[in-house]
Amino acid sequence: MGTEESDAQTARVADGIDYVCGHLADIRASLEYDGGDATALDRLLASLKTGADTARLLDDLDAAVQASGDQVGVYGHVRAAEGLESVTGASMPGIGSPQPAEVVYLCPGRRCSRVWWPGASAAIPVCTLNGQPLSAERL
């Protein structure tokens, strides 16, 4: 696998984990609905806490989510949230801030693609998995 492919796979997994962390309760409820099984979710969460490779486990969760009735799955929700810029690589003129923020907060373990931009008085959010505050990163 070339560097470009591995970078795309890494980004795909990070975006998938970001989606899962942000929708844990909904995903679990969907998987456990009507006596279903959340084993795929539990395996992924355990691997994230230990730092193990998660790509295959995220694929397994995506398949389990689809089998539970959500035909879009984890990756489909990520693609839907990405919008035009991520699909085409283009951005629209005049959209977005004219100057980037100086600090952005990221996943403390760099396992997902979660991003939080600081607000006026908002507290720094914590990681859904381990309770650690998101890490500051200067742009």
What portion of the residues fall into strands of 2 or more residues? 5-15%
Distance between the termini: 30 Å
- Look at the helices and sheets and give the structural class: mainly alpha
Q: Give the strand order, joined by hyphens, for the main sheet.
A: 2-1-3
> What is the H-and-E element order?
HHHHHEEE
How big is the Rg? Answer: 16 Å
Number of helices: 5
Unreliable stretches: 84-101
- Largest β-sheet summary: 3 strands, antiparallel
The helicity comes to 40-55%
Total beta-strand segments: 3
Shape: globular
Mean pLDDT: 80
Summarize the structure.
The chain is mostly helical and 139 residues long. It contains five helices and three strands; from the N terminus they run αααααβββ. Helices cover 50% and strands 7% of the residues.
